[in-house]
Design a protein that fits this description.
Length: 472
Amino acid sequence: MTENPVSVSQALTLERPVVSPRRLILPLALAQFICSFAGSNMNVMINDISDDLDTTVKGVQTTITLFLLIMAILMIPCSKLTDRWGRKRCFTWGLTLYGIGAVLSALSPGLGVLILGNSVLEGVGTALLIPPVYILATLWFTDFNSRAWAFGVISGLGGIGAAAGPLIGGIITTGISWRAAFIFQALVIVTIILLSRRLVDPLPPDPKRPFDAIGAILSGIGMFCVVFGILQAGSNNLLFAVFLVIGAAFLGWFFLYIRARERAGKEALLSTGLFKNRTCNLALVTQNIQWLVLMGTSFVVSVFLQTVRGYNAIQTGVIFTAATVGILVSSLAAERLAKKYPPKSLIVGGFVVTLAGIGLLLGLVYVSTRNVAFVPGLLLIGLGLGGMLTPSVNVVQSSFPEQLQGEISGLSRSVSNLGSSFGTAIAGTILVSVVATGNRAYTWAMVAVAVFGLIGLGAALLLPGKPERQVG
């Protein structure tokens, strides 16, 4: 791998922030908050957007999924570009592009423009700005416990953004309009840009750093085809199978390509060495499934409440307050918990609590039509997810040295956003398919989420008690 002309230790000494990194963490955390908010707040606007833009639940689902998918596709390439262009520059460019997309979405006359603004521009902007968030946090905070605090704040606000998205979106949609929710996003972006003026990039950019464009294309096509194929399930099973096969073929081609490129002594888009760390691999699985469960649950419950129970945007959003409170409580305790318990215990415990919450969501829907029936399950899901988001990220990022932070940050964020895409695509497709309707469709979708939760628990149980670190 090509290294920067200035060593990591020198860069960290010469370019240390002039103020405490803890005072600079706010714009990074707000950036993760607004990007996670964007992925879930539209869930409560489904009826309003469908009526206003003359589209369907499937159309809105596609918009949300494409936003999450574009983030996942571009996260690894954009993380590599942070080395070439600089982390702060990518962060600022991403914010700007995101803001333009938010304004365009607010003004969209139809579904096509909404997809351009929300799915494409906001998706690309997010892919540019998120890798620097985790890279800068890793470089600023050098020991495991301080990183636990930093990642706790960032991941916690990310989880709160995803969980509070329905509530905030519901209040804005009911009180003003669904379009105002995008203006809210644009205003938050402007605030982040102003707050980030004092950010310091510890490592200098390397404009001569090579970029693997072919690898980016192969991986992007592969991931797109897999998720797009999932979206076709139930409505067109032939396209579902064809796109899954094409996606798997491109991802296989991508792996063979980067391995051959590495053997030839060239820098690949993604180092295959990242996958030799067993602890990191298992933690990545838990990350993927955490976001799959969060976004899948959010979409399924939101659609069910609006289309079956007849709730409006704000009623739906209020119900999700329980999940927001749960994530907030457990995220704020992240640093303290990291000092008392190993990451494995926190992740395993988080999945157990989350699965208990899913069980309550499945059981109580049949015994009560009251809003309060959803509160216990969503609260437990929030507590469980909030308690394990931070240790999963910390295990992944801390498994590698500083010179690999760009790559592992991109991979980590890509895996998480792919999980979000899968959650909305898989659970959402089951919910809106013709296989079942009403309570039965809700049950099938939540059972699918529970199955993935069990897979995540299995991966967590396989994590070693003490994380391993790759030194080169």
